[in-house]
């Protein structure tokens, strides 16, 4: 090709940052926004490190999902295969990966690893899998004592532990007093308190780090008081520093305001301890409105009455001061934060309830450990906590910790912004002592490489804390400092869309990172792809959800008609946002794929099976029995159904159903249906004590010819999911109740997988990391769901 026709590849804006991140002697914290190619950087880093170790297991990569781990393993395998079988590619970026993989193949021959024949030597783990491996190696120290199963749904065990704790209300002592105080607070609503305690067990990894796992209530209370003192000191220190330039101007006006209100005088500027919280909150009330904005006017209520002389001068001076403060958004934020700090005042009713919780919760966690041991199961949180126990504290690391310290030379962690506090602590324990080792062995440096993007932190509801990512970037792990790198190039989206995102989201994020509040500043991206014609994004307003669904359905139908239109996604914040759209898609006969969108309880076959369980469990549940007669396997008409209900008004329906002579007043078709129904149920009831719950319900359903009544195979899959849930319920030793059945159904979703996959419906959380050609986000006008109200909220 003539030189004048050659086109040089576009320069990657952050090429220097990417090259720097491959330095095997330095540790990094990499900020990698969406579409920045961070997985490729992780692959290149992994290959670079493999060339420097004696065994491939010395390089550990940790991901948070099995999908991410599988992708990393697959791409490493592809890179090694390409280096072994294909020539060096022309693209410089791909060529660099190819050369690194060639170096690994040379090391493979040198050390006789045989990686291509045995790729399982690549030490790539999910965080849960890694924690599980630790607990299996140290079963005694991890408090498991042997092999144990981790369950995804542990709520039945949380509830059992909670009820065992509540049963101790009559035992007397401090525990009973604390339980009694909480019951009094909730107007003796046992069910409410039970639900709140169950919720606390689900997020115990957040508060156990502050309260401890022992049974000593006084120690737990002291730990909570210390944590609150540290929180107050951190917040008030920042506030005091920000207020210092205004100190001399504010103090006399503040004192005047307090004097006019007849409140206790302030003799000096407040400090930054927990005892100063109420004083700072007094200042916040003076400067800010109830809506947390700077005051624009002052009244007698704030201590500035209308008058002449000194009163007029002080009021004018205060208004002038407020006008000067109005542009300081950082100071406003600090004052608002101080307003909501806990006032740990002895004797205060709310503070006493907090102290009761701090004494109860460690015992609740201990009760859960007993329940887990009785059933031989654990949840994933328990596995993570047990992994920390297996490594031991700093002052007494275990033999396993010493072994890992010898074995692991390099650690890479993906999606670090999704880290919870116990996972952060796991990484810290794995890397303790590395700074001292590196200082003594500069040629055998151990490195930590974490990758994340605070702007993609959307798993706060699962206890992820983006503040931990900021903390790692700014403070490192103990003495192991991490150098900060930021990737800015977006390889995924065209330039027009990248520029639109930069403009819109620049003002949606705070100006600077904040560890305590878990806030992170926006980082603009640089486009790699050229802009396309037309608008990159559009906003369309509608008068109703139906109109919106109709428009989106038409757009999707048009796109699906063109094979080159690419993949389409409808993303929602919550599943209810699809209520109007799904019927529209069905009306247009469009097919789609969806995961965990349709609640299993919305499936008609599951509703029928649920009614069957309720009816057979309780002969007096008239609603369930009458629903059975309307189910497709019987299909009794309304007139006949009313006659049946009147015939057995004073007795339970199973007894009445078995008396064939009672149905002479029904229509001939109704009588025939009732006789067939009663025969099937009579045979089923005779088998109850011989079968498990799942087998019994399935046998009755088959006898009633339930499978013949479903419309498609998907409903049969829903039925199988329901029956499997019944089997698991009985295997867990749970006693069947209708309420328990509904709780389990609410956590299951229909297995909906239709169509060829070009159209996908999913939540924003499920879509993270995926790429689509066209995206629709409906129902943006709907307000977000309120925050979860827990018994005790803990900020990491």
Lateral arrangement of strands in the main beta sheet: 3-2-6-7-1-8
Q: The biggest beta sheet, please?
A: 6 strands, parallel
Proportion of helical residues: 40-55%
> Strand fraction band?
5-15%
Runs with pLDDT <50, length 5+? 1-9
- What is the overall silhouette? globular
Assembly state = single chain
Q: Give the N-to-C terminal Cα separation.
A: 60 Å
- Per DSSP E runs of 2 or more residues, the count of β-strands stands at 14
Q: C-alpha Rg, in Å?
A: 32 Å
Key traits:
single chain; 4-stranded parallel beta sheet; 32 helices; 14 strands; disordered N terminus
Question: Helices and strands in order, then pairings?
Answer:
Blueprint: H1 15-20, E1 28-31, H2 38-50, E2 59-63, H3 66-85, H4 92-111, E3 123-126, H5 127-137, E4 149-150, H6 155-166, H7 173-185, H8 190-202, H9 204-211, H10 217-243, H11 247-261, H12 277-287, H13 310-325, H14 329-339, H15 349-375, E5 377-378, H16 380-391, H17 399-407, E6 410-413, H18 421-431, H19 434-440, E7 447-452, H20 466-475, E8 483-486, E9 489-494, H21 495-505, E10 526-529, H22 545-560, E11 568-572, H23 581-587, E12 593-594, H24 604-617, H25 622-630, H26 638-647, H27 653-657, H28 668-685, H29 693-703, H30 713-731, H31 738-746, E13 759-763, H32 764-767, E14 774-776
Helix pairs in contact: 2-4, 3-4, 5-16, 6-8, 6-15, 7-15, 10-14, 10-15, 11-13, 12-14, 16-18, 22-23, 24-25, 24-30, 29-30
